[in-house]
């Protein structure tokens, strides 16, 4: 049986950090002075230990650097973790987010069962940042930093705690707001950790059928969610040619997973949003097979679909007044005897025909069916997320996702959500000039557009299936297939998109559709 990942419990407490009994107290230290009262008091109680470690040059206060000190008489914490915040003039909310993530990761490393966070205290937040927003961000960051995917490691007595209690320390006047924000942050952080675990699991554990079973399980756990799944027979009967083509070479048949969230307000009185996520449980490239180097990471090609699943979990917990449907087309792209081939012409759910030029351009074949299905359901807006193109990684690297779409107002709402969550996106074009690259001489479209502008031409292809419905596309290839261990302490997925999509839905305002 697989090992359970560490359970993280977030609490809020009004307590003096210096006197708080905890395995680890995390405090923020700027690279430039003067130090706030908390740091000065701790230094005094520790007989000048903070000053000495800085004088030795072992701790400079640069962003995300740390120094671990040990408590003694006159202080409550057993350990004090100094976390660098960099220069004060450059400090932002993201500075605190990164510092809290770093502290939570260090708590796991030293096998702490309890950790108290005071990094946000005495931080020069802008006046517009509310106490609940600060607490929400700290809770999200603590859950992110403490996450470890170790389900398949030996369950020997390595001292690793089954649970870590993270306490956000606050001043008494803001305690109620802090608790409200921490509750929201916990819902979002737990949804992200849930999604990260599914993203990290390999293809022999997560097939299209297994992902569909997970979606049904999630729906059973939330009274405001429901789930329906179309199997290969139903997909055939309804004409989902794109999804079927991609999955026909695998021993694991494809699925179309539909998770629906219904708000407390009655239908017809609330806006409606469709979230679509690509879930290729393993992408070998099919007959147009990928190079073997790095192919093990193609288990992450389900990240868009799992991000939608994680967002649906968070939405169920936050209960916004928006009717949301999560549409997750899932398949395994394998070079079997029944595989679709270069040269095939596929009739998609919309009725449009697509000439297959490369079976490794499979994600758009799933998405075009799912986007067309979303528009048929009549939702106000459609947003899709997919690890779609290597071209987007070339353009934006591993830190930023691309955003493209048919409606400026929708894209602006996604940008606002990105700014709030710290999950970076950058707008790229997908206009008519890119669509020209996707036109075929023997079908309506072809599934590749050549070497240049690959992220933009892929988005232009998808745009054709949205019709007049406002639509936006998130290409998360760079951030969805990244090894988080290089940057965030835990190898595997960083769970990009769950908080972004959730924030977008919670803040969504219907956009005006121009009549032709």
Description:
With 516 residues, this protein is an alpha/beta fold. It folds into 2 domains: 7-196, Leucine Aminopeptidase, subunit E, domain 1, CATH 3.40.220.10; 201-507, 3-Layer(aba) Sandwich (Aminopeptidase). It is 36% helix and 19% strand. It has helices at 37-45, 49-55, 93-109, 131-146, 175-200, 208-221, 232-238, 241-247, 303-318, 363-376, 390-396, 408-421, 432-437, 454-463, 477-480, 498-507; strands at 7-14, 24-29, 66-70, 79-84, 114-117, 163-170, 225-230, 255-261, 272-277, 279-283, 323-333, 345-347, 353-355, 381-386, 401-405, 425-427, 445-446, 471-475. Strand 15 (401-405), helix 12 (408-421) and strand 16 (425-427) form a beta-alpha-beta unit. The chain is elongated and about 80 Å long. The protein starts with 6 loop residues before the first strand and ends in a 9-residue tail after the last helix. The relative contact order is 0.11.
The strand count comes to: 18
Overall geometry comes to: elongated
Structural class: alpha/beta
Query: What is the percentage of strand-forming residues?
Result: 15-25%
Q: Rg to the nearest angstrom?
A: 24 Å
User: Uncertain runs with pLDDT below 50, 5 residues or more?
Assistant: none
The biggest sheet amounts to: 9 strands, mixed
Note the gap between the termini.
Answer: 58 Å
Total domains, how many?
A: 2
From the 3D structure, determine the CATH topology of the largest domain.
Aminopeptidase
| Fraction of residues in helix | 25-40%
CATH class of the largest domain: Alpha Beta
CATH architecture of the largest domain: 3-Layer(aba) Sandwich
Task: Round the mean pLDDT to the nearest integer and report it.
Answer: 94
Multimeric organization: single chain
């Amino acid at each position: 049986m697989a090992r359970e990942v560490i359970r993280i419990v977030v609490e809020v407490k009004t307590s003096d950090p210096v006197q708080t009994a905890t395995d680890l107290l995390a405090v923020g230290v700027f690279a430039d002075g003067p130090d706030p009262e908390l740091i000065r008091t701790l230094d005094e109680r520790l007989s000048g230990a903070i000053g000495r470690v800085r004088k030795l040059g072992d701790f400079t206060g640069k962003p995300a650097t740390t120094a671990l000190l040990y408590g003694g008489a006159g202080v409550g914490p057993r350990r004090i973790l100094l976390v660098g915040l960099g220069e004060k003039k450059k400090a932002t909310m993201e500075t605190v987010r990164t510092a809290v993530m770093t502290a939570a990761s260090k708590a796991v490393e030293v096998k702490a069962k309890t950790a108290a966070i005071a990094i946000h205290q005495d931080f020069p937040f802008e006046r517009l940042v509310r106490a609940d927003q600060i607490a929400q961000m700290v809770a999200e960051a603590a859950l992110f930093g403490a996450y470890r995917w170790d389900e398949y490691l030996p369950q020997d007595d390595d001292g690793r705690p089954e649970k870590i209690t993270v306490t956000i320390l606050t001043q008494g006047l803001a305690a109620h707001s802090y608790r409200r924000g921490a509750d929201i942050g916990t819902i979002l952080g737990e949804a992200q950790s849930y999604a990260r675990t599914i993203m990290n699991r390999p293809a022999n554990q997560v097939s299209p059928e297994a992902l569909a079973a997970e979606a049904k399980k999630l729906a059973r756990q939330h009274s405001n969610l429901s789930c329906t799944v179309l199997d290969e027979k139903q997909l055939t009967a309804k004409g989902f040619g794109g999804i079927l083509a991609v999955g026909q070479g695998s021993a694991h048949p494809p699925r179309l997973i539909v998770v629906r969230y219904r708000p407390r307000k009655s239908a017809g009185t609330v806006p409606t949003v469709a979230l679509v996520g690509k879930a290729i449980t393993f992408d070998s490239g099919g007959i147009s097979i990928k190079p073997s180097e790095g192919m093990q990471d193609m288990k992450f090609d389900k990240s868009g679909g799992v991000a939608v699943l994680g967002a649906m979990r968070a939405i169920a917990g936050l209960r916004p007044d928006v009717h949301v449907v999560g549409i997750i087309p899932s398949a395994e792209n394998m070079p079997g005897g029944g595989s679709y081939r270069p040269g095939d012409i596929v009739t998609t759910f919309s009725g449009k025909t697509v000439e297959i030029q490369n079976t490794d351009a499979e994600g758009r074949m799933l998405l075009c069916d799912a986007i067309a299905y979303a528009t048929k359901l009549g939702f106000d807006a459609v947003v899709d997320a997919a690890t779609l193109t290597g071209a987007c990684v070339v353009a934006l690297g591993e830190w930023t996702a691309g955003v493209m779409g048919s409606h400026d107002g929708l894209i602006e709402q996604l940008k606002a959500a990105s700014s709030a969550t710290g999950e970076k996106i950058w707008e790229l074009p997908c206009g008519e000039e890119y669509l020209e690259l996707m036109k075929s001489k023997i079908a309506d479209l072809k599934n590749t557009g050549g070497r240049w502008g690959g992220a933009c031409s892929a988005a232009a292809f998808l745009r054709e299936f949205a019709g007049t419905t406002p639509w936006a596309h998130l290409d998360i290839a760079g951030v969805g297939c990244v090894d988080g261990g290089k940057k965030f302490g835990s190898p595997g997925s960083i769970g990009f998109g769950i908080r972004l999509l959730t924030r977008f839905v919670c803040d969504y305002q219907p956009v005006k559709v121009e009549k032709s």
